[in-house]
Amino acid sequence: MRTEIRLSSLILFGAILIPSAGQGAQLTSAMSSTPLAESFRMAESGADLFIDTPADAPVSKPQNIPDTTAAAPPPTDAASAIVDKKPPVADVAETPSADRKSTSGPKISGFVQNELAYTYADPAHFSKFRTYARLKLSDTLSDRVKWQMSGTFFYDAIYDITPNFYPDRVKRDQRVDGWIDESFLDIDANNWDFRIGRQNIIWGEMVGLFFADVVSALDFRQFVLPDFDTIRIPQWAARAEYFKDNFHAEFIYLPVVTKDNLGEVGGDYRPNPLVLPPGLSSNFLEDKNLGDPGRQFGVGSRLSYLVNGWDTSGFYYSAPDKTATFGCAQNSSNAAMLQCTPYHDRIHQLGATVAKDLGSFVLKSEVIQTFNQAMSVTPGSNPNGIARTDDLRYIVGTDWTGEQGAHANLQFFQTWYQQQQAAMGVREVESGASILLSTTGWHPHITPEVLWIRSLNRDDWMLESKIAWEFAKDWRGTVGADIFGGARDHLFGEFTQSNRVYYELRYSF
Questions:
Q1: Deepest of 79, 211, 414, 442, by most Cβ within 10 A of its Cβ?
Q2: Which numeric CATH code is attached to 15-508?
Q3: What is the mean pLDDT of residues 295-314?
Q4: Of 320-334, 402-416, 452-466, 489-503, minimum mean pLDDT range
């Protein structure tokens, strides 16, 4: 028997790929302690045509400062891509007219995307028929002040076409939704840049993984399958950046941290909350907020320096855990019911990243130490169903780009749980690996891509495969399949009944 009560989305690898802690009414943290939900995504690379790079993406920042407007492809020349160096600000007389205050009004951009998915496992059913739209307005107020406003909306007709297949709570959550996307004010003050508003803050530099990307929230209602530009949830924040030669410093303040969206119980990719014996039931409380209003803020800083071709950085971040950890304990008024309460304990994280261009290869690595990480445990082992541990996560990877458009990315990662308990359902050290292959060598407008992720501790894996075709200007079609394998009490294996084929059609403007 098993239970997934925390989709700590791959912040902690190992728990995402773990077997249950035992039999019966047990809670494992396979989703609650993993690096895969925040770690596993399609490569954010030039070979990944599944992620758009807007034509008006910020150009005043060096390429290794992750673009907070959209995912940007990594360059083949890492030395030019990872330098934390801000270009000098031009004199007003030298500033191109495009950088002056706009006289033609805001620029409008965005995309509209239609998505259809068919789940072929028993019971076979159409699982998605979504129209997804994002609109962005941007303009300049002066040579040094710019603004952007954007919003996202989707409607999934599958919940009207098959009204009786999904629970009402899932239909309410995923039928129609909309939110404010990246909307901010940018101020250029010579060596300082300031950004105030709703924004993505992306500190991870690994291709395809989120290990050091600890700030941005994520939408897990489609697990970790969507593209970066649709899975990230911006944070309301104030950010200050300082540039001097090869040195870059970044300081952030989040007044109220935005939580990850885990979806509702009964959705295709919401982990099965509890598998209980007859006569025992569960009640999952709604994840309404982050707890104490005075402690919902986040604060952090990141320092980067380029020395002898090595791009190095270190960061500190403290905030409530944006992913809920559900602790399940016996209801005091009903012994036949487990009541599961969401927790967002404040965590503290220290991290470092390094990257080095080795010609056709780029070597990258990240390490993150997390303090006070909450994890779900077997009910009855702890009074509130929660245990806490410090954990150390690291990843080492290499990215290769060939002359004929071939691209490969290999990565190995581990998590060390420093106060591991048997009730957590994880080993003290959990290991995993991923491989991504793609090419544009067959045709410049057609890109096949395959991503395989698996645990090295047990048979548990996920395979994503796609073919994207840019068949006309601003148009892109994609067909693909998402396949899960492993035992039903493991993370990926749990979703074998969600194996699907799909298509996407996107128009960008």
A1: 211
A2: 2.40.160.10
A3: 95
A4: 320-334
Residue with tokens 């758009």: 52
Q: What are phi and psi of 156, to 5 degrees?
A: -110, 105
Report the alpha-carbon distance of residue 250 to residue 268 in Å, rounded: 38
Q: How many CB atoms lie within 10 A of CB 223?
A: 27
Token pair 């010579």 is found at 190
Query: Which of helix, strand or coil describes residue 17?
Result: helix
Give the domain ranges of the chain. 15-508
**Nearest partner of 460 among 427, 483, 429, 428, judged by Cα:** 483
State both tokens at 101: 């205050």
CA distance 317 to 251: 10
CA 51/CA 31 separation, integer angstroms: 26
* pLDDT tens for each residue of 199-249: 999 998 776 677 899 999 999 999 989 888 888 999 999 999 999 999 999
Q: CA-CA distance, 461 to 14, in Å (whole number)?
A: 12
Residues 98, 229, 59: CA angle, nearest 5 degrees? 25
CB 138 within 8 A of CB 168: no
With contact defined as beta carbons under 8 Å apart, do 5 and 13 qualify? no
7 burial via Cβ count (<10 Å: 0-12, 13-18, 19+): buried
The Cα–Cα gap between 18 and 28 comes to 8
Q: What distance in Å separates the CA atoms of residue 210 and residue 191, rounded to the nearest whole number?
A: 29
